[in-house]
User: What shape does this take?
Amino acid sequence: MQNKDLQFEPDIQKLVDDLYQPGYITEKFANIGIPSLIILSQVFRFDKSYLGSYLADVLIHNKKLYKDKDVLDLGSGCGVLGAICSKYGAKNVHFSDINPTAVKNSQLNSILLDLKNVSFSCGDLFDNIPPDSKFDLIVFNPPNILGVPTDETQPALIREDIIILNFYENYKHFLKKNGVLILPGSSRFDGELSPIKMAKKNKLKLRIINKLVEADGNHKYVLLINS
Assistant: This one.
């Protein structure tokens, strides 16, 4: 149940409140071969996401990143990113989310889209990923709003700093040799834990594979990090 005491700026609070609204079916991704997509209540509204939809578009135009590869869609939500990878050539896709409703949502959409060679787990970051699993690609759209989640729904938007720190400490254990990590970022969220600053801080090999300058001078990007 939603925490009524949670307080953010009005535009952020609206995003949080929207998570708890009834589920629906969207055709937002019909132009990239996903004619309809279920988004359940208490699951991240990927079709309304500032960075999520952008990342989906970048993936659809860079199929070589996941073709014939083993992919982890981390924080999968309704499963859009993993579905794109599965539909357009990935060998296997594993969907994982801390929110059990999101895992159910990914499962429903995988059935709806007739995806093959997919698997699922529920856990915080890499918790409950099958033992000894290794992936060629991990794709992750990290939450950008600083705060303390009060239920399993809110981590889709809200995160404590320790979550991001733990992610960078552990992701390499789940990548194969020559595996890569893909994350979106934006100058709007250019704090010390932004993807590009964390990559530089940890002296990681990074490459910006797409950058989009916006009308107000801000920009968003998709970062590729080598293992």
